[in-house]
Amino acid sequence: MPTSAADDVVVIHTDGGCRPNPGPGGWGAVLRQRHHVRELYGGEPTSTSNNRMELTAPIMALEALTRPVVVHLYTDSTYVRNGITKWVLGWQRNGWVTASKQPVKNVDLWQRLQAACARHRVEWFWVKGHSGVDDNELADALATRGLREALDGSAVAG
Question: Which segments of the protein form a coiled coil according to its record (predicted)?
Fold first, then answer.
């Protein structure tokens, strides 16, 4: 039976956060393609930010893909979605400064996310956090696990 284009889509849900912000953080991602599911997570035991963890999750998910594919990427972070779909090309064109002439925060991660996206055809979607979307809730739980393991000194990407 031939596979359809829809079968080749990888659906990714990501989340990240810190407690407190700034502070130790964690990130999580759920990748689904057909009946295959992969869960990834990790954390940072030293001071980081919610935004850095929200950016790290899609980077790690996209970098985990072994070949170029169509990706539907869901995030509950408007910062990440707007940054990658609306702002990043302008920042890059302007030498990584904002419209108000301030240095772009997290430029290292924005550049890494751009590179990760370049390998794939990524469509970005925003989903309301903590609204009962199963894979978003799972990504949140994985981010919490990443934070907890980072604090325990045992954080290894899952």
Answer: none
